[in-house]
Amino acid sequence: MARRLGGFRPEFDFAQDYDLALRFAAATKQIVHIPDVLYHWRTLPQSTASSGEAKPQAELAARRAVQDFVDQSPYRGSVGRGPLPGTHRVRFDIVGEPLVSVAIPTAGYRNDGDTGWYVLDLVRSIRERTTYRNVEIVVSENGDLPPELEQALRDLGARLIRYESPVFNFSDKMNRLAEAARGEFLLLLNDDIRIISRGWIEEMLMWCQQEGISGAGAKLLFPDGHIQHAGVLLLGQGPSHPYYLHPASEIGQVCSAVVPRDYSAVTGACTMISRADFLAVGGYDPAYRINYNDVDFCMRLNAHTGGHFVFTPHACLEHHESVSRPEPDPGDLDKFNRQWADIVGRDPFYNPNLSQSSPRFALATEPQSLAEVYGL
Predict the structure, then answer these.
(1) Which domain holds residue 82?
(2) What is the helix (H) or strand (E) element at residue 124, kind and residue range?
(3) Same structural domain, 64 and 113
């Protein structure tokens, strides 16, 4: 196949192997990762193994290779400098101008300073920092919002729907929101969030418009600047958040905290998906009343689409995390781990040589044998 693809191309010298790998990726889906050390590379002062700045021409050649890959793909876009040397940022063009429904469940809790309400702070930040124009905001409330809050939300263009149930069920509430939404894409958003980055909707939408992508999640930071969400891993203990409580400056393993990365799941606190796909899989499972409904949903959506989720740090939001949720149901974690036993501890987006008990990408104390890794 290397000969058929044209082998190494001189115009991409210094990144000729990267260019060839990208063309392989475009030509076949039969690519697997071998989770073993197959060879070692000497680290020399003049080598990119010691520093990405050792050969700046290599980074430029690699960026041209990525641009060529994008140009040959079904998705148009531009490639620029990434957040760190040796990284790149792809901005795919948005196809058309589909309506995005921002779906927000709320109980109308007041914010930390008691100067207003979390949901109102969120909707204001959406209006102030969102550059994508074709957006509707749908808020699900329990029928007990103060009249001044209701009016303030309507003044900001939000559409309110009433959630009435004798027993609170977050999954059911989200499903009713999705049914009431009108957009081609759903953006599920907790009410204790504030938008930080402009262009956040475009960043998530460009991934959601691609085949094989189930949905997209954002980077969420606590108010003190530490990481709350940078993707979800299905470790041996169950759903886990990598880099949880790490500083916002955390680079992550192979820059995975600062560049987009594939995951099996993302948090429901900020998730964009196709509304048609959401409805096709039945939305959130009401059996998970409070917790793990979002990760369970991601698993079912992946099975439906045959795809996976993308975490993008270029959509960045502030999250207070669960200030407006009741206590979780006991036993939900065990139920989730039993239901998804075939993937818990075997996450395809996590190296089996890493710890199954720590989401910090630490090496496993007892790495699996080759027979365990490959099922020999």
Answers:
(1) 10-92
(2) helix 118-129
(3) no
